[in-house]
Amino acid sequence: MSFLQNVSFIISTNHFEELPVDIGKEIAFAGRSNAGKSSAINSLTNKTRLAYVSKQPGRTQLINFFKIQDMQSLVDLPGYGFAKVPKPMKDHWRKLLPKYLKERKSLIGLIIVVDIRRELTELDTQMLDWFAPQKKPIHILLTKSDKISKDKSLRTLKKIQQELNARWGELHKTQCSAQLFSSLKKQGIDEATQKIEEWLS
Hints:
alpha/beta, 7 strands
């Protein structure tokens, strides 16, 4: 049984000063709205509704903390890039997300969930630009890989790995990696779980 299957909800907040005490180790999940972030978290933890899944993009509008075990947490960040989110909320996220990525000491790694059909968007690269200078590891989950052919998915994976290493790995001396993932087909769960376990150990 995966160690992530014991994960439980801690708190949701929209304000930096309300985050849990900044100790221990936490791994954050970020991603564009509708990229499959909530589905990925649910697949990794083998729970159906730990992270809220919606066909309507933009439902994750808070920072959600989940306890793995003592001093270890998963963090679900607000989905970004959804046009219908009110402007005051967007402006709040633009301040909150970089502050969290740059200043949170217990944040040891960032997982960015990317729809393989869209590849890295401008907003994904912005998140990477904020986080990479911390010299903490980055891992990309290329979700919905079942939606395209195996050949195309492998070519996209190679392309993104090269882009990651060139733009953030070599520039910031940051450990960058990527993998194929499908919540629907249960593809890549073991690989992603192993990555999380490596970071926490």
